[in-house]
């Protein structure tokens, strides 16, 4: 499939980022090979918009040679396209999977480049917050001459030198202990993530082998086990970066002076005016709970591209592997259905302003998500799953973890005790007013589900639920949806 977008021709799909599909393409005029990330805008949500705007702002302002370059931002009727530098070596995650551990000489060069990019970001007041193998790209397949490029800035956060962040974002195996412990954190959390990444590329395997979040939190406090082939300098570097107490964990600038990087650097002291030497003062990070446009331009101001997307037949057929359903697959699908149901409720009532309705919905969703997470933990233990053993379940497990974190935060923001008597009255009134179409009935049933689960729920609401279920089944049978 070929897409003609302005001066660019996007051809085959080469991957997926946090919120879009990535295509291989070229500039029609210069013939330069590019990568184009297509972000669908038919039904954008605030979370997607925030991630996209953050990435655009970071990449537009970046002049670091080790951060992926953004060439252009184009808008069509259906998508926004980020036209970026193409990295022919793929990402580090796939490199390690196919090649195993990286030689220390090569790793030293790549890690020094990654270190420089992190220092550059810190000097610009930016935390990446999702440093992991999959977000580090290689410029070519020739590892002796390849350089790294840092990508995927959707989770990035803008801080000043004395501020902390508070939101739990990132990939669990790479997340610092202070994030799991609900502490405010700073750039030192990215240092921890870099330590996890360093261990994995130098050994070819994860530093923490675990099946549950509880096990991961325990392992983070224990002594690190190293394979014999690692040099003492490499072990020392990893130990320093994986220091449990973030107050004693070294900064990026201090890591420059580590013996592991001696072939690259000749720096022994940190300048007194360096950000790394500045005190870190506790600050609440309340703005992380709200959507904000972080780009220099809003989504509507991004350059409108007048050319239509042109599609040409793709000569290569896409082969889909047939899903083999077993017990684990069935449990995964059942869990996924529960997750989607709660997501529907969250999205349905996201814009509700009345606290008498909003707060019971938040508490109900939190209780359900906790139950779903506990069920997922049991599955992990029963089947001895790891992140690489079952990809489908692993992705769902991470989704549930993210939902739990967001839900716990939402519950903590509830200031007053939930008044269920007023909630029941509000539900009764809302159900009487709903449109008798499928969407209206679904909304009514979701409200009634929340109410009926309460032991003190009045009989009138139970009768309303029965009537709505009859109507719902009738609408489906008559194909009114």
From TrEMBL:
Residues the entry annotates as binding ATP: 42
Residues covered by the Protein kinase domain: 8-261
SUPFAM superfamilies, sorted: Protein kinase-like (PK-like) (SSF56112)
GO molecular function, one term: ATP binding
InterPro entries: Atg1-like, Kinase-like_dom_sf, Prot_kinase_dom, Protein_kinase_ATP_BS, Ser-Thr/Tyr_kinase_cat_dom, Ser/Thr_kinase_AS
Keywords in alphabetical order: ATP-binding, Kinase, Nucleotide-binding, Serine/threonine-protein kinase, Transferase
GO biological process entries: regulation of autophagy
PROSITE patterns found in the cross-reference section: PROTEIN_KINASE_ATP, PROTEIN_KINASE_DOM, PROTEIN_KINASE_ST
Domain of life: Eukaryota
GO cellular component labels: cytoplasm
Subunit structure comment from the entry: Monomer.
Similarity field: Belongs to the protein kinase superfamily.
Name assigned to this protein: Protein kinase domain-containing protein
Taxonomic lineage: Eukaryota, Sar, Alveolata, Ciliophora, Postciliodesmatophora
């Amino acid at each position: 499939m070929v897409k003609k977008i302005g001066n660019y021709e996007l051809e085959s799909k080469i991957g997926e980022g946090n919120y879009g599909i990535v295509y291989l393409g070229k500039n029609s005029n210069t013939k330069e090979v590019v990568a184009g990330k297509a972000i669908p805008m038919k039904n954008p949500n605030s979370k997607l918009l925030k991630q996209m705007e953050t990435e655009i702002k970071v990449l537009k302002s970046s002049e670091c040679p080790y951060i992926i370059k953004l060439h252009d931002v184009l808008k069509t009727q259906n998508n926004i396209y980020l036209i970026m530098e193409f990295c022919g070596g793929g990402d580090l995650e796939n490199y390690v999977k196919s090649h195993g551990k990286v030689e220390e000489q090569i790793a030293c060069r790549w890690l020094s480049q990654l270190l420089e990019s992190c220092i550059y970001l810190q000097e610009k007041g930016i935390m990446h917050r999702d440093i992991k193998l999959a977000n580090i790209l290689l410029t070519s397949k020739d590892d002796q001459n390849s350089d790294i490029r840092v990508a995927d800035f959707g989770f990035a956060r803008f801080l000043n030198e004395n501020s902390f962040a508070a939101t739990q974002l990132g990939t669990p195996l790479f997340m610092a202990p202070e994030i799991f412990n609900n502490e405010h954190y700073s750039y030192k959390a990215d240092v921890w993530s870099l330590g996890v990444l360093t261990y994995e590329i130098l050994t070819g395997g994860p530093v923490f082998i675990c099946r549950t979040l509880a096990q991961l939190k325990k392992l983070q406090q224990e002594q690190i086990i190293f394979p014999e082939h690692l040099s003492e300098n490499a072990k020392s570097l990893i130990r320093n970066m994986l220091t449990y107490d973030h107050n004693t964990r070294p900064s990026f600038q201090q890591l420059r002076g580590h013996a592991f990087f001696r072939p690259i650097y000749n720096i022994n002291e940190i300048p007194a005016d360096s950000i790394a030497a500045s005190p870190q003062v506790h600050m609440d990070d309340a703005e992380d709970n709200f959507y904000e446009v972080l780009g220099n331009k809003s989504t509507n101001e991004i350059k409108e591209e007048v050319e239509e997307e042109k599609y040409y037949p793709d000569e290569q057929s896409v082969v889909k592997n047939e899903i083999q359903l077993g017990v684990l697959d069935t449990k995964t699908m059942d869990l996924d259905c529960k997750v989607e149901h709660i997501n529907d409720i969250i999205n349905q009532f996201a814009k509700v302003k009345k606290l008498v309705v909003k707060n019971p919905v938040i508490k109900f969703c939190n209780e359900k998500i906790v139950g779903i997470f506990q069920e997922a933990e049991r599955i992990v233990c029963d089947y001895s799953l790891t992140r690489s053993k079952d990809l489908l379940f692993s992705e769902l497990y991470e989704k549930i973890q993210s939902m739990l974190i967001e839900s716990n935060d939402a519950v903590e923001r509830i200031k007053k005790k939930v008044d269920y008597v007023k909630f029941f009255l509000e539900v009764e009134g809302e159900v009487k007013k709903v449109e008798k179409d499928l969407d209206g009935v679904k909304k009514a049933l979701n409200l009634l589900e929340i109410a009926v689960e309460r032991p003190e729920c009045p009989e009138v609401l139970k009768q309303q639920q029965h009537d709505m279920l009859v109507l719902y089944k009738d609408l489906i049978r008559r194909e009114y949806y």
